[in-house]
Amino acid sequence: MVTWSGAAKADLRDIFDHIARDSRFYARKTIEDLVQRSESLLTFPRIGRVVPEYNLEIIRELLIESYRVIYELQGDDVEILAVIHGMRPLPEEFPPRT
Known about the structure:
Elements (H helix, E strand, L loop, with lengths): L1 E3 L1 H15 L3 H15 L10 E2 L8 E6 L2 E8 L2 E9 L13
Parallel strand pairs: 1-5
Antiparallel strand pairs: 2-3, 3-4, 4-5
Helix pairs in contact: 1-2
């Protein structure tokens, strides 16, 4: 199962709001793409690379458009932890859970 943390859902809302200032159509399309492509983790949970900043096998990321979808492997399940624009560094207060 792929689940989204509260923080990741808030990230999606922020991304939508930011893009929607110029185009609600593209904001909706971007969010749909992020969510739909993240669903591939159901079948292929290890498809993403290990997040270089953490170098832990269970903390991985998918690169989708300009965004880093950070997720954690939890047995057969995946939890999306954050969605961050690729030009932004990962926040220091965002430690991986182990």
